[in-house]
Specification:
- The chain has one domain: Thiamin diphosphate (ThDP)-binding fold, Pyr/PP domains (Rossmann fold).
- 28% of the residues lie in helices and 16% in strands.
- It is built from nine helices and eight strands.
- Strands 2-1-3-4-6-5-8-7 form an eight-stranded mixed sheet, sandwiched between helices.
- α1 crosses α6 and α5 packs antiparallel against α8.
- It is globular, with a radius of gyration of 19 Å.
């Protein structure tokens, strides 16, 4: 039986006291334990940023990529070893800024993996520049006159027909852990965006600010995440009320299910004879 201690961090945390990442890493750890996943069954892939440090604080397989490049590596790992539970982790700048092109491609392919985007609406590691999701008017070193209209990433994900889209809040650990579990169990690309405060560089979108606004769409009773028009409406809702929970879900064939080479056993367990490539090498001799 897997226990929380099995995922105990291998090093001390290097986040600011009060950072929303503490709640996220706890929710992720609890989700993995609830699913009875051994650390050896999990691969965590991240880019650069405060959120990108998260895999270092969980005892499992870890791969760090360049800024915004977590998704290509994560998809490749899942295709090669379909028995792994692959989870990519990044921030709003890492995922929606530097990695925006990979974000679109991953949703289109629908590789069976989970993508956790920690959205604090600012570049926290590099001292508080505006990010793609910063609220309009946010003043920073890079936006002295205030940032422009923020990206509504979940609306873009719905337009891209992402097969699972959920949003959680770092201050609602039980709900967030449940959403991460659902994302991991979903067959296809699962996006779990997490709203989190940056206590050092974003003094507007605080814990108190979020707690006054977030609500679970399930509390409305009649919300159906399979209805795309409903999902668009919720994805664009921001301000006095901010929806959380599963916003959109659709069953689609996964990318790897279409690959004939993976139909019998994972690629990583298929025998490879180096001599099979000799004919290719000979062409360049």
């Amino acid at each position: 039986m897997v226990e929380v201690k099995d995922y105990a961090p291998a090093m001390d945390y290097q986040w600011c006291p009060g950072c929303g990442n503490f709640g996220i890493v706890a929710a992720l750890r609890n989700a993995l334990v609830a699913l009875n996943l051994e650390p050896s069954q999990v691969l965590l892939v991240s880019g650069i940023g405060q959120a990108g440090k998260m895999p270092h604080y969980l005892h499992s397989h870890v791969f760090n990529e360049l800024h915004g490049r977590a998704l290509p590596a994560a998809q490749a790992a899942k295709i090669v070893n379909t028995e792994l539970e692959v989870i990519a982790i990044g921030g709003d700048g890492d995922g929606y800024g530097e990695g925006g092109n990979h974000f679109l491609g991953a949703m289109h392919r629908n590789v069976d993996m989970t993508y956790i985007v920690c959205n604090n609406q600012v570049y926290g590691l590099t001292k508080g520049q505006a990010s793609p999701t910063s609220d309009q008017g946010f003043v920073s070193h890079t936006t002295p006159d205030g940032s422009w209209v923020p990206m509504r990433a979940l609306a873009i994900a719905i337009a891209a027909d992402c097969s699972f889209i959920a949003r959680g809040f770092a201050g609602s650990a039980e709900q967030l852990s449940r959403l991460i579990q659902m994302g991991i169990q979903h067959k296809g690309f699962a996006l779990v965006e997490v709203l989190q405060p940056c206590v050092s560089f974003n003094h507007t979108n605080t814990f108190a600010w979020y707690k006054q606004r977030v609500y679970d769409v399930e509390s409305e009773g009649r919300y159906d995440p399979a209805v795309r028009s409903n999902a668009f409406q919720k994805a664009m809702e921001w301000g006095e009320r901010i929806p959380t929970g599963v916003l959109y879900k659709k069953e689609r064939p996964t990318y790897e299910s279409r690959l004939s080479a993976l139909k019998e056993i994972p690629l990583v367990r298929q025998g490879v004879n180096p001599l099979d490539y000799q004919s290719l090498v000979d062409e360049f001799m």
